[in-house]
Amino acid sequence: MLPLLLVALGAAGALLMAGAVSAWWWCAAAPLLALTALGAGDLAQRRDAVRRNYPLLGRVPFLPEALRPRGRRYLVGRDADGQPYGRSVRALVYERAEGVEAEEPFGTERDVYADGHEFLEPSLRPVEVPDEPPVVRVGGPDCAQPYDMALLNVSAMSFGALSPNAVLALNRGAALGGFAHDTGEGGLSDHHLRGGGDLVWEIGTGYFGCRTPEGDFEAREFADKAALPEVKCVSLKLSQGARPGAGGVLPGAKVNAEIARERGVPKGVTVVSPPDHRVFSTPRELVLFIARMRELAGGKPTGFKLCVGSRREFLAVCKAMLAEGVTPDFVVVDGSEGGTGAAPPEFAAGVGMPLTEGLITVHNALVGSGLRDRVRIGASGRVATGSDIVKRLLQGADYTNAARAMMFALGCVQARRCHTDTCPTGVATQDPRRVRALDVADKSERVRRYQRATVLSASRIMAAMGVRDPGELTPHLLLRRVGPTTVSSYAELYEWLAPGELLAGPPPSWASDWAAADPDSF
């Protein structure tokens, strides 16, 4: 606020001098008054959080705090096609959130002949785009309250990592658009409940929201909160793509009194979740705990989330499901390319399977074990566009979740200050002076528009491929250039197991992992 304050003081001084000394002072007073009015307008408007938090200063295009999706600096990294990730994706999300459908009539900027380029196969017999987007019924044979999941939902982002206004805007956007909002592992706050959106309540290793003073799982509190009508599903977080094998981190600068109360932790102290769970230590115990959670939740869909590391360990979980006759209702696969503002740089895409390999591993393991028809699979990790959704469905998912793209829809400009509590747009901070800039009504509508336009894009792509229902998508329809003159489909690039194949006799490439998988040991 300092630049605006100085300009306003300068304008007041110039006015006094113009009246008391010389009319020539109007030459200074006029532009200063104009700048003061411009800054006051920045404070009053609700669409641009940067200008609301940084009146006048937020208009300077080269400052890091004022970067826009249409600007010149973008996220470092590459997408599944090996292209720079961020520029086109951020611009696309921003425009869809504004209600503008982006068009690029002069061809792609990508090198379609580069190795690794992927493309979907259109049909000479396309079909009509359905009037309503498809949904996915989540709920296996042991589920008493199945839930219809949208193709794109809000991925896990905790209150604490995100501001109260950001959480509320995401939830209201989910309510407006009819899709689900994953709470993240930070507990079930009032900001999650006020918006009226459908919730997937995530429980992490810290058991925030259902935690004893000693840090153990508190069953009674869990049952009471899981019974809330807003909670549609319950998810147990085993690991996340940003830091697989390590617990989540909330910097102490962001742990205010409300968050400390919600999580049952000391105020102002960095919260580091344990790397593993206290309530189970073997695949069999995990499966039985999932069954207990579902019972405590009144039969609502219950599952778990993980970033896949060892294929043998996931096969051990499948063997435990078979041994106990218990399956989760869903498994969310988080790719190692996923990220948070508080993830160690060494973990980024360096630990755990990328989403493509993780999805195919989980899908094949469940198919080969004869369990796939009982378990839905969600995909999370750099899902932002309609083609992203279709590709993930082809690779084995039933639905997708997005985190980073939803933050873009809220107005995130990637200032990379998530861990410092100084987010310039009010998305990832607990500073009330910065949070006020994020207008809930405006941003919830942006979230709704972005999700609707992206799912519609996925429906259009599937229609162009001749596909009426996501269940008709097959790996043959996704192709990758693997050489200057060679293109192969995913059906050729990866091995796809037949239903029950692991039980009847695993193929050589799976035999050693299947034999080593132990339901009583990870």
Radius of gyration: 25 Å
Question: Low-confidence stretches at least 5 residues in length (pLDDT < 50)?
Answer: 64-86
At the fourth level of CATH, the homologous superfamily of the largest domain is Aldolase class I
In total, how many beta strands?
15
Percentage of residues in helical conformation: 25-40%
Which fold name is given in CATH as the topology of the largest domain? Answer: TIM Barrel
Number of helices: 18
Structural class by secondary-structure content = alpha/beta
Strand arrangement, major sheet: 4-13-12-11-10-7-6-5
Average pLDDT score: 89
CATH C-level category of the largest domain:
Alpha Beta
CATH architecture of the largest domain, by name, is Alpha-Beta Barrel
Largest sheet: 8 strands, parallel
Question: Kindly, what is the distance between the CA atoms of the first and last residues, rounded to a whole number of angstroms?
Answer: 54 Å
The 3D shape can be described as globular
Architecture overview:
With 522 residues, the protein is α/β, with parallel strands linked by helices. It is 37% helix and 12% strand. It contains 18 helices and 15 strands. The strands form four sheets. Strands 4-13-12-11-10-7-6-5 form an eight-stranded parallel β-sheet. It has a three-stranded antiparallel β-sheet with strand order 1-14-15. A two-stranded antiparallel ribbon has the order 2-3. Helix 6 links the parallel strand 5 (180-182) and strand 6 (198-203). The longest helix has 25 residues, at 440-464.
